[in-house]
Amino acid sequence: MSKDEAVLHAQSGAAVNDSGSRVNPGAAGQPGAAGALLREARQSQGLDIATLAALLKVPVHKLEALEQDRFDLLPDPVFARALASSMCRVLKLDPAPVLHRLPAITAFKVTSQNRGINTPFRARSGRHAAPLWSHISRPAVLVGLALLLGALVLVFLPAIQQEFARYRQNGRAAVNPGQLAEPASVTTTVITPVPGSSDASGAVPGPSSSILTPVDVPAAIASVPETSPNALPAADVNSDAAITFSAKRASRIKVTDAKGTVIMDRALRAAESASVSGAVPLAVVVNRADAVQVQVRSQAFDLAGVTRNNVARFEVK
Question: Contact, 66 vs 80, CB < 8 A?
Fold first, then answer.
């Protein structure tokens, strides 16, 4: 046995590669090794190693390591056997002799399974596992949220106030839609008739014999629900009634007797007339006074002297 053959025999007898796999006897360094068989088959077909690597879609240096029997440069024996099988399939070579010369898979030591079992467990820092509330409850975050809330209130508060004011106005209009705006204090004229003669016909003196006395009365007048014209006791024109109203345009009239009972509270349409009588003194309120003609005991009564802001107020005694 020559010196070179002895060295090769010693290397193949019990050599173990760096990946922990024992090489089959006579596999590494011999002309009949797996790498030599693959290299001879490739060269016999005239394939370049780069072309074969492109066909197998693997790096060139891995094919070179396999052809040179440098299994320590490959990931593991399983990868080496799979790569050799792929080369045999492309080169149309029987894979059995090649696989027989590759490192045995059963001899591969799986040491990664026992690696890290006794490694101490490092608990995650509580800083990373803190709940969301711990971040929100920070003073800086709370101050920022308070400022944001205040800005939203300042932005939307004027619109909310306008909506409330509009709602109140609509509510007041719904309570008494026919009541027009009245001044806080108006001058009211009291008509005090002079006692007439003992004429059996009941004739009364003209308006020139009446005494007009201006007095101040509060503007707030109790509003009552509007009564239908059929329910009024004196809805029709009566020449013997105390007061007669004739509307040239739409208006509203309210009459209260001495007992505080509202005996008339209605709206008159254009060209409509109505008369009323009751226990004196009668308190009269005429809205849109310029659109109404009044007769007191069949005598025309001028509303100009008792009208303010187009609302006439007077009493008939």
Answer: yes
